[in-house]
Amino acid sequence: MAFVKNIFDKNFIEFASYVIRSRAIPDLEDGLKPVQRRILHTLFNMDDGRFQKAANVVGRCMMYHPHGDASIEGALVVLANKGGVPNDKVGLFIEKQGNFGNVFTGDEASASRYIECRIRPLAKEIFVTNPEVTHYIPNYDGRSTEPEVYRAKVPVVLLVGAEGIAVGMSTKILPYNLKEVLEAEIKALNDEPFEIYPDVQTGGLIDVSNYNDGNGKIVSRAKLDLSDDKKIVITELPVDTNAQDLKKSIDEAFKSGKLKISSVQDLTTDRCQIEIKLPRGVYAKDVENALYAYTDCEKSISCQMLVIKDNQPVTMTATEIIKFYSVKLKAIIKDELEFERGKLNEELHARTLERIFIEERIYKKIEQMKTAEAVNEAVKKGFVPYKKELIHEVSDEDVERLLKIPIRRISLFDINKNRDQVKAINARLKEIAKRLKNLKACAVEYLEGMLGKFRPEEFVRHTEIARFSAVDAKEVAKRDTPLRYDDKGYLGTSVWGGSEICRVTPYDRIFIMRRSGIYTVCDVPDKLFVDTGMWYCNYAEKEIITKVLFTVIYRDPKTKYCYIKRCRIPSWIMNRDYLIAPDGMEVLHVDTRESFEFTLHYVKKARQKIKEENFVSSDFEEKGHKTQGVRLSAYETESINVQPAGELDLQ
Hints:
The protein has 17 helices and 34 strands. By secondary structure, the chain is an alpha+beta fold.
């Protein structure tokens, strides 16, 4: 058994780790989930400047992501719609052609065989694809390679956002404005303070009072045009909402009676436009709070910036991510400059070897050599007098490259051209050395350059930061629905006839004391059978119920002795039945009056003189609701008569 448990634990941990790192949570290094990274890798490999069929991209991507074409196709559409201008043909990383869906209406994209895409050139400047700088690993079957993670120069995880549910954890990162992110990274490099807040394509209003830099919650609202008293126009959508879903929530609120409107029409195309017409006597200001309370015009969204950092899930803030990338950008620029310096040094070495090899006629020394080893040795000896001019020792690869120079090229060798090339290389090497000493300035220069490369419309902020409190639906709701109780024992808002107990809202809870002495707290029912002769019914609010003094008179079925208990009910659990009398007792009467008279009629027996007895409820002390009652008499009780009978007080 222990062996099986160990196997289960091991497999579960491996599965959880796989879901967290390889499926649901983005990596901080490039801000991408594995399927998104593989899509970009595929597009980089396929890039020839022309559009590619999305179906072809999906098929190629399956070389790296063996989880089916449907998951890749969905991720491709989502990634293509990230950033840029809403419903525009240019996303942050991918340029689109065809119907990729509509973020406003909620319409889906066309099938992958009908749409095309290509990588955007700017994506190559954001992600480092050079295998000498980015680490590549074998794909799942070892036939190709893919990046373990890209090295991104800007915080992609903030630009595109992320949402995912893993084993025991989840992430919800809202997207940010491109310009604000780049400017914040510049400020972080300069050690200047900055604040940054989400910005979604569909616009709307957000209250960030409790956002907690990415690990709290926001309240998001639609933007309403209330200029016409008899019409409301929704012009911008809340976060994570489209026009179809918003209209559906309005229809449902209207059908349930929570919203008083005449009609609603969705005219959304490339921007949101939902028109709500109001009935006679109802004005826009009267409906505004109801829209926020009962529909998706207002949403509260919890956020958590959970990312994979150093192969571990870590919760970070937006400020921490910006600062992380400001340090990372300098490291990437340093690695790229050092890589370029190494390439230039090799190029300089090759140009120097070529010049000496031709100018000093070293190639003449190999004419009498009979073996390859002798030729190799002769060339190396020929460079010994010029050792000080070389970058490093002459290698076998250098000799092989020199021996492949054709005679025509030797005869046409231009010493001046060679010197110009060497001069240009040396100038670039000096510039690299200077830049390596001031990486901070290089990083700022890169970010400022990026600000100039994106289109101005991509920098426009869509979501407005505002301050407002979430509308409580319970506060907006009006108690105008009758709660009725009929003579058949049914209670509810859909009960016709009978007596009206009170007026309720859909958010009220009701306290019910049944004939049997069982009491329950439940939501307002449509139609619920509670038995005939219900003792009491009211709003299940503690300030109401705890003030009610319940007097219960019950009888022991075995001894026929009668008891009285006076108590209050301080607490309860929803939809759970409680008996106000001890178990097994027969409840004869429940009353909520402070004082009343009642008569017990005893069982008739020989030589028993007392046949009935009168009592006053207020003569007995109030006790806890879990205590036993007080026995009223030593005689067996046959019946009870409450006087005066009056009308039963259900409230």
